[in-house]
Amino acid sequence: MTHGTSSDAYGRVAIGIHWLTAVLIIGLMASGILAENSTDETLKAAVLRLHAPMGIAILLLTLLRIAWWWRFDTRPGPLGTNPAWQEFLAKAVHLLLYVVMIGMAASGIGMFVLSGAGDILFAGAPGPLPDFATFAPRTPHGIGAKLMIALLAIHAGAALYHHFIRRDATLKRMWFAASK
Ligand code: HEM
Predict the structure, then answer these.
(1) Cα(first)–Cα(last) distance of the chain, in Å?
(2) 107 and 55 in contact (C-beta within 8 Å)?
(3) Whether 168 contacts 79, CB under 8 Å
(4) What is the per-residue pLDDT across 72-93, written as a single tens digit (0 to 9) for each?
(5) Residue with CA closest to ligand 1 atom 40
(6) Ligand 1 geometric centre to CA of 108 (Å)
């Protein structure tokens, strides 16, 4: 197994970043929606104490991913069996996923900094949690959440379509066993 990508499979660094990101995104979406709908302050605070570091972790992982593709590795070519519009759509969705992940992390950090929630949750500052809706970054964070759900549905739906219906190597080459 190599660190780098070969012509027919992603390398283990790229695969590791991909699946770690997937786990964090699921955790972030679930905890974000739970925090938003929670009427219990203590529960909301506990959830946000997990949500914020996960969001920062995914930001760092995304920056690492950009550096990885930019400086150290090259993506495998297309399988050659897909119509051009599908290749284009896949690339556009990947790019938008990067943009939305970075935008959500940035707006989340913005909400914490502007509202003082970071100090209340992590530095022992007194006071109840702020009403995040009164801070500007809450709007892009909410729009990003909806976009993220749509993008993930297309992204994961396409991967499952390729795996189970087309039965090609799209999903397999993003798994460790395929990376020699
Ligand atoms: C890629 C990273 C992130 C994702 C995918 C994400 C996801 C979410 C989602 C789905 C919601 C619910 C929004 C809604 O339904 O309108 C939410 C709310 C929230 N997130 Fe994030 N988030 C991320 C990063 C962050 C970071 C880094 C912070 C703070 C440092 C943060 C702080 C918050 C706060 C304060 C709320 C609002 C809770 C409320 O309105 O009551 N998020 N997030």
Answers:
(1) 4
(2) no
(3) yes
(4) 999 888 888 889 999 999 999 9
(5) 36
(6) 6
